[in-house]
Design brief:
about 190 residues, mainly beta, Immunoglobulin-like, single chain, 14 strands, five-stranded antiparallel β-sheet, six-stranded antiparallel β-sheet
Length: about 190
């Protein structure tokens, strides 16, 4: 048996030991029905349209790319404020999504539901239809008012493929920088 045969046999044995039913370009699905991305989306960044404290009506944009080899479309996204989640209040009814980036807005994407957990303030966005692999998408969350204190605000972003037992892949933190009102005027000089 050559090294390639041994490697293929070892891989097959390893996959069967963890309960994988099928691994293909289409998806990774465990024997218990849990679905995973083959290649998870990438969080490209986050930006706010207005960065001053107490500013009324800023939109926080989160951009991510679903690689062509993701294996599954993007069905759901959860954006969770970290530390002091009550500092920013979002109007989830004004949530938007589109192909492209904040700078290069493309086709609007239909949303099935947008909900917010009253305790954690995590916002769950469900796409209908799911976002196909190979796309870059941006989600805009409308903040009624920016926080009272300047600083870096972190938002954890988790992506889910379709399925009743979809595994959420944590993509990282979107960082929104808010400046004290006096500090922004200094930055503009």
């Amino acid at each position: 048996m050559n090294w390639r045969s041994r490697s293929a046999t070892a891989l097959a044995l390893s996959l069967s030991m963890v309960g994988l039913v099928g691994v293909s370009a289409q998806a990774v699905k465990l024997s218990n029905g849990t679905t995973y991305f083959v290649q998870p989306p990438r969080l490209e960044g986050a930006v706010a349209t207005q960065k001053s404290t107490r500013f009324w009506g800023s939109t926080y944009y989160f951009t991510l790319t679903l690689p062509a080899n993701a294996g599954e479309p993007l069905q759901k996204l959860v954006i969770s404020p970290q530390e002091a989640p009550d500092r920013v209040q979002f109007d989830v009814k004004q949530t938007e999504a589109f192909e492209g980036t904040f700078e290069r807005e493309g086709t609007k994407l239909p949303l099935q539901t947008v909900t917010q957990d009253s305790k954690t303030q995590a916002i769950t966005i469900t796409f209908d239809p799911a976002i196909a692999a190979g796309k870059t998408v941006t989600i805009g969350l409308y903040a009624n008012r920016n926080p009272d204190a300047g600083g870096a605000y972190l938002y954890g972003v988790t992506a889910f493929p379709p399925g009743e037992q979809a595994f959420g892949q944590f993509l990282g933190y979107g960082r929104i920088q808010i400046y004290d009102s006096g500090a922004t005027s200094l930055l503009l000089r």
